[in-house]
Write a structure and sequence with these properties.
Among the domains are: about 55 residues, no CATH class; about 160 residues, 2-Layer Sandwich (60s Ribosomal Protein L30, Chain: A). It has six helices and five strands. A five-stranded mixed beta sheet has the order 1-2-5-3-4, covered by helices on one side. Helix 4 packs antiparallel against helix 5. Belongs to the MotB family.
Amino acid sequence: MAGKGKGGRDGAPTIVLRREEAGGDGHHGGAWKVAYADFVTAMMAFFLLMWLLNATSDDQRRGLADYFAPANVLGRSATGSGEPFGGTTPNSDGAMVSDNGAIRIEQGRAPVRLDIEDDGPSDAPPETAPPAPPQPAGEAPAQAALARPPQPPGEAAPEVAPPAPHPAGTTPADPPAGAAALGEAALRAELARREAHAFEQAAAEIRAAVREDPALADLGRQLLVEQVPEGLRIQLLDAERQAMFAVGNAAPNERARALLAKVAAVAARLPNGLAIAGHTDASPFRGDARSNWELSAERANAVRRLLLEAGIAEGRLQSVAGHADRMPLLPEAPMAAANRRVAITLLRSTPGTGPGAAPGSGPAAAP
């Protein structure tokens, strides 16, 4: 009988089966997640940038750029208008910023110390101060006292001599005695010359305006424009068969109104004052109810109202008067129609400088 083998009961070998369960690989970390998140963030920022470039204007893009990179390091929230899309930044025109940065430090000069001891005479020539500009009288002593360096203790300050007094009744820069008078006289003469030239132009414009109007061309002989010592006098005269006013009436007729409109258009462009005077002939009124005084004053006042309606400022009117028959244009013919007139005078701003004026004469009443 055979015995048992090494391997088992019946001598068969023992087989050991090892089974390992399938499992995942070991842990490799999450670095790839961080890289993927960075990639997605970059792509989102890129597409956001593309959208902003397409949907915003130049001013808005300038505001966005300053929002992310502010120019003022002391105020990170300063974006010009306070909003990203405000469109104004600290770099816009007119902003109070400096191109040297928000913070600028300047180092001043250190004060010079004058504590060098005098060891003896020096071969270097003494330094001389540059000459000071001339100072007005009365200021030099005070400025000299301020500019003088402080004296060491125990040493007397040098005395400053006072300025030499000027002769009584004079000043350091008195002009010659007649210089002011000559300058004023020359100025008055120049102003009078310019004013006379302006009056000549105004007279020519009035004559031309009447001459060029077919309805008023025949009234040229009833218009008298001349320069007198008082200024430029414009007179509207009556004619034998062509009156400016109805007999005994203060209201001007239509032709007189049209002629006054031409005169007012030119007078309105000059700044001179105005004087209006009414005149009549020597024909007396019947009865005692009215006289030439009332009639002449009423005609002057009617002309005043027409000038104001034409645009003449009321502040320019200096006088409105009626002279009746006391100042006739033709003294040898007191009943002549030409004595019935209205005179408008543009007064001179420099009285006494016109033609025929006596030296030093003042303004006279306009006839």
